[in-house]
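Fold this sequence, please.
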Amino acid sequence: MGALRRGIGSALVMMLVWTLVPILGTSPATAAPLPVPTVGSIDPAIAQFESELVCPSESACLATVSRWDKVSGLTNDHTLARSVDSLSDWKLVTLPRTLGAKSEITVFEVDCLSAQFCYALGNEYKPEGSRVAMVWTTTDPTLSAWTARPQQSTYEMSLQSMDCVTTSFCVAERCERPNESDACIGEVVWSSDQGATWTPTKGLTVPGYRIDHVECPSLVFCFVQSWNGDDEFFVTTTDPVNGPWTSVALPSQSFGAETGGLAQCESSGRCIIGGDSAQVFGDGVQHYYGYWYTDDALTGDWSWKPLSGASYQFPRAGCFGAVCLINGRSILGATADPANGAARVDLTLPSSTASISTVCTASRLRRVSRGAGTAARRPPVR
């Protein structure tokens, strides 16, 4: 299986799944309920939690946070915090720096392959503005000791969507500008040394101009999401090093399709993505919110399942065993029949969790979209 990415509020949604299980008549046999988070101590240097939360075990978790500065107040640092006691107490992680003690760090993604291997993506900035793209890794069970892996670049480079299927095979999206005047070159790359060096994959021509996400649920199933301005594309391969890659446009209502979040796929090839499929009516556009589903992404046989009601605007979706979750702005739905969209149970979410969007699988939690909190400073939009 791939890594354990997920968003803020994972434990909350996990508990909601266990509430839904009796309703849907489904029992996740291999999973155990996570401990209920309690209010404990939070390092006073932590200003607020940001968009990422990952728990490689029932007691250990990592989250992206912004940091207070004693002199100037809130800084531009978006770093990591760790908890090793079931989400109760949080402490800042001291990530190694390569540009000097006064540099600032932005961590925009953190993930874990297991309790023995976690990694984070971000940038390190000098006060005058220069920066270096960074990968940090740890095998420390206390999540406190990290190794910095600065990325070599001729001018400017960003790494995004890093996913490790083993400790010796990772994929990522890389965007590099060889010179200041050059356009950003987006490509899918792979690494055998935990992100220290990267090699472009072969045989991949990404449809459109924007890569949204790259991931490998297994060594023989990897996918890329991309967008061309109107439609979302899903590109798959069984060999991420050499290709070939196969592309399919997700079905739309005749105008366009854009996903609201990242695809959640299992090693079997089953995938689900929440999003928006639009149709033109005269001078206007009607937006239909729902999700795309397939039992086998490698065959490219996707179907579109609309959801009714304004509460399902901008939905995110994912599956936990036989149960699939779909949540919008203020509602969480669940179905045991995602292929037909039938027998859905709807729950209204409290306003404090309306922007939270996570999914669960039998052995991991995965992030599908940005959770609550202020977004970290990301690499330039291409």
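DSSP finds one helix and 27 strands in the chain. Confidence is low (pLDDT under 50) at residues 5-23, 26-37, 352-382.
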